[in-house]
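Supplementary Data S3. Sequence and structure tokens for construct A.
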Amino acid sequence: SGRVDWRALTPPEWVAADEKALRELEEKGSCEPYEKEYIRRDGTRIPVLISDALMPGNRREIIGFVLDITRLKQAQTALHESENRSRLLIESSPDAIFIQTRGLFAYANPATARFFGAESPLDLIGHPLLDRLHPDYREGARERMRILNEEKRPVAHVEALYLRMDGRVIPGEGSAVPFRHEGQDGSLVFLRDVSDRKRAEAERNAMAQQRQLALEAAHMGWWSYDPVRDVVTVDEVFQEIHGISGPHHPMAVTAALLHPEDRERVLSAIQKSVDPADPKPYSLEYRIHRHDGRD
């Protein structure tokens, strides 16, 4: 009564661990704590932590403790799965994600290698981060690393020019948070290639300049309407033609500039053009009523 054959409860793959513990008992009188599993009556297994020692004066009796570590194992499994998910997200991210410690690349995901034109992330590890920044941006980057590493404060979105491995310049937008990696203070950096956005911005600016030149040559003004704020924004030529001053006006003020006989027709076309469900462009001729009374 009260006796249990621990050998009968031990799965075959854990017998070697028990035998090692028994040899330690014979040699030292005690064994280092070790993990194994026992088989329950229902056939399920339970993970345990075991430590044994020989009773004083008797080499045949052993005293020991058995600790159920089921919850510990569950927590370790959950942590391992969480780390795997995080690693998968970082490794598969289309944006560059890397870790900086002491001003050096300590980790880089595949997207970081693509951003800098490296064959592998390993080509970056151990190399100074500042080497990959355009000289005009190195001083600012040095100060941001100081803030991250020493003051432990995050850095918001910052645009800078970076250098690829072949020397080509590439624009990027990045942010970083303080991060401790392998016992060293550093930062976790998120970096995005904004080349396409910069090209699109340059094209829009060029088109806007061309449009403005054409409008000025034809002495034509332009205006835009924000239906959320109900505000109309106009250029200087529009102001001159309509006899008003200032670039921003409530729609009611702008509508008062329309000739009374044309007002309803024009406002209706404007409302249809800003309908998010079915916006309709329009082209209209209409008369205006200037503040000085001239039509």
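Construct B, processed identically:
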Amino acid sequence: DLKEVAPEPVELSASMGPSTSTPSENRHGSVLRAIGILNKVQTYSVLPFSAFSCLHILGVVITPAIFGTEAGDDMIGLGREIYHVPLVEYGILGSAAVHVISGVSLNLARKYYRYLKYGKSNIKKRQSGDDKLIVPGKEEDIEVRDADKGLGGITSVLGAGSRVSFTSRYLGLSPLAFSGYFFLALLTGHVYYERVSPIVVDGDSSFVDLSYVAYSLQKTFLKTYFGLNTLVLVGSYHMLVGMNRILRRFTLKQRKMTYKAIFVLATLGAVSLWRISQIDVLPAMAAKFHSYVP
């Protein structure tokens, strides 16, 4: 049978009532969403430039060091058939520009988020994450996920644990970010001398080959040799460490492999430049190159 009962008040849960989010919490969410978008843009925008870099390194670093300068010139000529097509070249430049702009924006967005979360007094206090041991007893599987530690340093490889990098402690930049800005400065100068200057003088860069690099080495050996080796070293570090983060390769074993790859590329670069410096540059070509690099 139905019975009459006394009415009782019903309490609405917070989820059923109006939103109680504060403006500060809304800003946190908006910044986090922006960070997520910028992170994806930065990650995928670099793919065209990475493909070009692999092809270019093959022509100017690996091939001359192993197979000689003539083979290197042949590989450079083959590469130009691909990346000197206007649409492809604009795509490579656009890829690099978007990667840099999104990277700077991402760094600023993360700083702003830390400011919102910790306040002005703690904005420079970057929290260093702990290393993660995947399988107990297997030190090779220790992961260093903290961007401020980069590859963990030489001490990590030697088994003494990873350290927060110098650039993070004193510049507020992770090793990956710092190497990116450094690489950008070196790459800008390289593009100017190898591509822009010849176009300004001749309207194209068809005369530029390894003999142009040889001319620069013979003219100012220490400056050119040190500068180009630094470009190879910093570029190798930035691209390989960046690829590690994209593929989530954080273990000690994987970091050791990265150190070895950087060392191999730097060594090949040094050998390649030495072999290139031995090229006999014809007087007529030397005069031409002098107009590019007075």
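The longest strand covers residues 132-133. The beta strands are 132-133, 142-143.
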